[in-house]
Automatic annotation (TrEMBL), chain A:
Similarity annotation: Belongs to the prokaryotic/mitochondrial release factor family.
UniProt KW rRNA-binding keyword: no
HAMAP family: Rel_fac_2
Organism lineage: Eukaryota, Viridiplantae, Streptophyta, Embryophyta, Tracheophyta
Pfam families documented for this protein: PCRF, RF-1
Gene Ontology MF terms in the entry: translation release factor activity, codon specific
Gene Ontology annotations for the cellular component aspect, listed alphabetically: cytoplasm
Domain Peptide chain release factor, residue spans: 253-363
Name of protein: Peptide chain release factor 1-like
Keywords linked to the UniProt accession: Protein biosynthesis
Keyword presence, Protein biosynthesis: yes
TrEMBL record, chain B:
Source organism: Pyrus ussuriensis x Pyrus communis
Keyword Kinase found: no
Protein name: HemK methyltransferase family member 1
Domain of life per record: Eukaryota
Keywords attached to this entry: Methyltransferase, S-adenosyl-L-methionine, Transferase
């Protein structure tokens, strides 16, 4: 975790202006705004100044603002009278947001808005219009980035960060310290989610989702609407977290004004809880990739070098088994080819659990060991290599690449003799070759041939899927993840047992002087520092 | 009848005792079947975990067993293509899975584990496995076959991995052929009931399967397995030799499958110890050239199957496959069509399939 603290401190005052491109705009356009936790009811593209024409008359605008307020906590007692009481406001937005084009068809005003977007070349559906009658306000938007939530006195998350309030220990009951810590987490979370990219992508997806012919291709449509839902959920979660922070800050201030100690301690506790959960959210945000929540296969292959290298491969495999156990993942051995004297030539395990792939993907590459080999009678120092591959297991069958039966060659592995009734064996290992790609998978760990075949087939499926994803990511460079750039052969980490003791990640320079703990599966430091470094790199690239 | 756990029985006496038993049943097949089939033994994994052992005792047993497995090396492979140490060690892992209530609890705090057999018996079982070459499936009392766990015991042929494919062949045959899927099928010489249960699950609720076996032990074990998979309404068991119990369904079968004994008698003596010493000879020995029963079944297929009916037989390999196809094409008077030879995953031509004209 120490790396996070550093990162957070380093990022303070860094790119916050970028995230808040127009911090003054809000107050200029909405001078009568008391609470600006209204991001959901207004939307402006990040790159475009607020467009007041979108609000067709001041009354409507007032309604929008008011209804935004009404979704606010009841404790902010200054709600203007006559506001639309619409407690389900925020959720209804998301529902309507999924098909704004359909809603706006036949509406000349909104049609204009949309074409206006087109002229500006923005891929956003950001028309804002209100309906009539008892349906009240209908709000359409793609992104909601521009107007940030703020407290009554205009304090925003970015301003909290900019204030550089000292962050004290958790037990110090100082709301400013809590708020600053949470704000920094939010900043980090946004950064890790690639907030700007996410909003742009969400706009694109919203436009796509609203195309009337979307469902002509149900597979594509399913994919699009799933991604749309997932990004929307992430965005909403962060925004809710932001709003919550500011609400609690308001509450603390209010409580102090009115000398309400009970309310004050309540709000202080709420802030403290937020501060604690924000740590989890930071880590969750590291794993925002589409396949990150999947289970995965981890394959370890020994490099050249015989027994010493086979032993190293077995140590690496053991490290992952123990890591999986520590994380509470379910681990099953799929395939193992033992070395002649010790260790393994190759092995594959299946790691089942939430975010198994998200974490394990950080381990892809070549791992190097330097030690005095116990297999060398002359006690010389040896360098060995083991390669690690990680493949996500897509949870959704509809995303699988269709594999033709005729493209497969299925072989009984290590069989000999007449077989059939002649032989009694519990060995029913099966090897499957996917002929077009040359991908091979073996499984001998199950107790029936049928199950071995099914296991090997599942490995083939996920590798073929991974190939296809890599191909698509190349095509879709706009939203590709830098992780896919890693080649399987590149050296990522060095483990030195003699003459000194150290494990060092060559990508992040993260290092640990206790190789034993690492080999016992204490890998999270390496994994998290790598994942956050990856996102830093992405951010820098922009 | 826990013969397998009795230490006083000589390992060589045990299987021959079984074989003799079944040979006598075999020769007496003309007399009506006994009113009740023998009650099958409960496989290890289904026994209640009423025993316990300390972790250290279990560890001691495991170390001992592991050493015994390692001492084998490739001796058995060289001798008769038997198991090597790697395979034995994997079996040891599976034995633990079956015998210990939950393998994960091995290192729990109170230092004991719950077992489905006494630890002394574990010693005995592993000794039988390695020293007497008792098949692993008889040791644990079950065989994992396709997605099934079938109970087996001495006197019943252990279903082979190759045979799994017959179920796939049936699956292909009934695909888009509702007439076949909802018809009456037969599995002759069902043994543990493997094929019958496998195809019953492929056919679904519309189909019906009659499974026969000469051996009352086999019928008892098959009935147990059918029951375990809740298929008693679909699979009917009948005891008797080949077509003997099927008089009432002549010409009515939509499908007919069998894995009959096909090993030439001369080869029996040289079989892998697990097979030759422990499995029932009646399920293996197919006569001088191994074709006695296959040819009998072929002849029967012509009058048992209705037109359009499907059959699949397992054979000893290429030679028997070719012989059968030739026989059916030339000598069976054109009763069959679409004859096909299908290889197993080891690349050996293993199955003959076809349809009744």
């Amino acid at each position: 975790m120490s790396s996070f603290m550093l990162r957070r401190r380093a990022s303070r005052g860094g790119s916050w202006q970028l995230l808040c491109p127009n911090p003054e705009a809000k107050s200029r356009f909405f001078p009568n705004l008391l609470f600006s936790t209204l991001s959901e009811s207004q939307h402006r593209n990040v790159n475009q100044p607020s467009n007041p024409q979108n609000l067709r008359n001041p009354i409507e605008r007032r309604n929008i603002l008011d209804s935004g307020i009404s979704s606010f906590s009841h404790n902010t007692s200054k709600t203007p009278s006559g506001s639309l009481q619409n407690p389900t406001f925020s959720s209804s937005i998301f529902v309507s947001g999924s098909k704004p084009l359909a809603l706006s068809s036949g509406n000349a005003a909104s049609g204009k808005n949309i074409s206006g977007c087109g002229v500006l070349g923005l891929p956003t559906v950001k028309s804002l219009y209100s309906g009539r009658g008892r349906f009240g306000l209908v709000c359409l938007f793609g992104t909601q980035a521009a107007v940030e939530p703020s407290t009554c006195d205009g304090l925003t998350v970015d301003r909290i960060i900019a204030s550089e309030w000292p962050i004290l220990d958790e037990y110090e009951s100082d709301w400013k310290s809590h708020a600053a810590a949470i704000a920094q987490s939010i900043h980090l979370i946004k950064k890790r989610l690639q907030w700007k990219k996410l909003l742009v992508r969400l706009d694109m997806l919203s436009a796509e989702v609203n195309k009337p012919d979307l469902w002509n291709d149900p597979v594509h449509a399913g994919k699009i609407s799933r991604e749309h839902g997932s990004l929307l959920g992430k965005m909403k979660e962060v925004q809710t977290f932001e709003r919550e922070l500011l609400e609690h800050v308001d509450m603390v201030k209010l409580a102090r004004e009115e000398n309400d100690t009970e309310l004050e301690s309540e709000s202080m506790n709420a802030l403290l809880n937020m501060r604690r959960t924000s740590k989890e959210k930071e880590i969750e945000a590291l794993l925002a990739g589409e396949q990150d929540p999947c289970s995965c296969y981890i394959e370890v292959q020994a490099g050249a070098g015989g027994t010493e290298s086979n032993d190293w491969a077995a140590m690496v495999m053991q490290m992952y088994k123990m890591w999986a156990q520590r994380r509470g993942y379910n681990m099953t051995l799929v395939d193992e080819m033992p070395g002649e004297i010790a260790g393994i030539k190759r092995a594959t395990i299946k790691v089942d659990g939430e975010y198994a792939f998200g974490y394990a993907k950080a381990e892809v590459g070549v791992h190097r060991l330097v030690r005095i080999s116990p297999f060398d009678s002359n006690k010389r120092r040896h360098t060995s290599f083991a390669a690690v591959a990680v493949t996500p297991i897509l949870g959704d069958a509809s995303e699988h690449v269709q594999i033709n039966e005729s493209d497969l060659r299925i072989e009984r592995f290590r069989s000999g003799g007449a077989g059939g009734q002649h032989a009694n064996t519990t060995d029913s290992a099966v090897r499957i070759v996917h002929i077009p790609t040359g991908i091979t998978a073996t499984c001998q760990n199950e107790r029936s041939q049928h199950q071995n075949k099914a296991s090997a087939m599942a490995v083939i499926q996920s590798r073929v899927d991974q190939l296809e994803m890599a191909r698509q990511n190349k095509m879709n460079a706009q939203y590709s993840q830098s992780l896919t750039d890693i080649t399987w052969g590149s050296q990522i980490r060095s483990y030195v047992l003699q003459p000194y003791r150290m494990v060092k990640d060559l990508r992040t320079n993260y290092e640990v002087s206790d190789p034993d703990s690492v080999l016992e599966g204490d890998l999270d430091g390496f994994i998290l520092s790598y994942l956050s470094a990856c996102l830093d790199k992405d951010e820098d690239d922009n | 009848m826990k013969l397998s756990f009795s230490p006083r029985l000589s390992p060589f006496l045990m299987p021959s005792l079984f074989t003799n038993l079944h040979r006598s049943v075999c020769s007496a097949s003309s007399i009506p079947p006994p009113p009740t089939t023998p009650k099958p033994q409960t496989p290890l994994f289904l026994r209640p975990p009423t025993h316990s052992a300390t972790t250290s005792d279990l560890q001691k047993w495991h170390d001992w067993a592991n050493t015994l497995a390692s001492s084998v090396g490739s001796t058995f492979v060289d001798l008769d293509n038997g198991p090597d140490s790697t395979l034995l060690r994997r079996e040891l892992k599976w034995l633990m899975e079956d015998a210990i209530e939950e393998t994960k609890n091995v290192d729990n705090n109170d230092g004991s584990v719950r077992l489905r057999v006494e630890i002394e018996e574990l010693y005995m079982l592993w000794k039988q496995r390695v020293e007497e070459r008792r098949p692993f499936q008889y040791v644990v009392g079950c065989e994992h076959w396709r997605d099934l766990v079938l109970c087996v015991e001495e006197g019943v042929l252990i279903p082979r991995p190759e045979t799994e494919l017959i179920v796939d062949l049936v699956g292909d045959a009934v695909l888009g052929n509702e007439g076949l899927r909802e018809g009456l099928w037969a599995d002759l010489g069902t043994g543990s009931g493997a094929i019958a249960i496998g195809i019953a699950r492929v056919l679904g609720s519309g189909g019906r399967v009659i499974a026969t076996d000469l051996s009352p032990t086999a019928v008892g074990v098959a009935a147990f397995n059918v029951q375990r998979y809740g298929l008693q309404d679909i699979v009917e068991l009948r005891q008797g030799s080949w077509f003997g119990p099927l008089k009432d369904v002549e010409g009515k079968l939509s499908g007919f499958v069998s894995n009959p004994p096909y090993i030439p008698s001369d080869n029996i003596a040289g079989l892998q110890a697990e097979v030759g010493r422990h499995e029932p000879r009646v399920a293996l020995d197919g006569g001088v050239n191994g074709m006695d029963d296959l040819l009998h079944l072929c002849k029967g297929a012509a009058f048992m199957l209705k037109p359009g009916g499907f059959f699949a037989f397992e054979t000893n390999g290429e030679e028997q496959c070719k012989y059968l196809v030739e026989y059916m094409e030339n000598d069976a008077g054109g009763s069959f069509c679409n004859l096909n030879i299908v290889a197993d995953f080891a690349g050996i031509n293993r199955f003959v399939t076809g349809f009744r004209r």
